[in-house]
Design brief:
With 167 residues, this protein is mainly alpha-helical. The chain is 62% helix and 5% strand. It has a two-stranded antiparallel ribbon with strand order 1-2. Helix 4 runs antiparallel to helix 8 (99-119), helix 8 (99-119) crosses helix 9 and helix 8 (99-119) packs parallel to helix 11. It comes from Ectothiorhodospira haloalkaliphila.
Length: 167
């Protein structure tokens, strides 16, 4: 949500007249994020019930493959899946991952989506994920994403950033 002062800051002067700087719409940003985060359907993240149902059923391995290929975060997902790189192709071929693994992968993707929404850019979100963050004890969010508590901490920090609780 953009406040009135922020809206004014996004304006630039053109020939003495105020003009809005180009800023992609939220829908356009979400479309870019969707494409860059693989083939997981949007509905999985827009409904808690759907998220739970899909987790219980088990996500297909090809969803994991699409996310890993789209994000390039192979090492992070190896940590989330708790496997070595030699076993990743086996995960890709599975019809359904176990409930706990499915939930962890979906939760990590949801967190990547949250970061893209907060930063209003997939690329800025990825840059933030790969940088040490003082509010995370100077850890990189990417290094914390493999545990439930790490994901929860990252989400809390993103919420604080979104609502301006950091100076």
């Amino acid at each position: 949500m953009i406040s009135q002062p922020e809206k004014e800051e996004s304006r630039v002067s053109v020939a003495g007249r105020k003009a809005r700087a180009y800023r992609p719409s939220v829908d356009a940003t979400r479309e870019v994020v969707r494409k860059k985060l693989g083939d997981i359907p949007e509905e999985v993240f827009s409904s808690r019930k759907m998220f739970i149902d899909v987790s219980r059923k088990g996500i297909p391995g090809d969803w994991v493959k699409s996310v890993v290929e789209a994000t390039g975060l192979r090492e992070a997902f190896l940590g989330i899946l708790n496997i070595d790189s030699g076993n990743l192709s086996r995960v890709y071929r599975r019809k359904a991952l176990p409930k706990e693994t499915s939930e962890e992968v979906l939760d990590a993707v949801r967190l990547l989506r949250q970061a893209a929404d907060v930063w209003e850019s997939y690329d800025l979100a990825m840059q933030w994920f790969k940088s040490p963050v003082p509010a995370l004890g100077d850890e990189r969010p990417l290094d914390l994403i493999d545990t439930f508590e790490g994901r929860r901490w990252i989400s809390q920090v993103l919420n604080k950033i979104e609502y301006g609780e950091f100076s």
